[in-house]
Amino acid sequence: MEIQEIKNSGDLEAYVCGALTRQETLAIAKLIKQNPELEEEVERIESAYFQLAAGIAPAVDQVALYESIKAYIKEDKAKAENNHWSQYLGWAASLLLFLGCGYLFYENTDITEQMVSVEQKNEFLTNEVTDLDSLNADYQEALAFIKDPNTVKVNLAGQGNHTTAGAVAFHNAEKDVTYLDITGLPEAPANMTYQLWSLTLNPLTPTNLGLVASSSKTMLEFTNANDTQAFGITLEEAGGSPTPTLERLYTLGAIQ
Question: pTM higher than 0.85 for the full model?
Answer without folding.
Answer: no
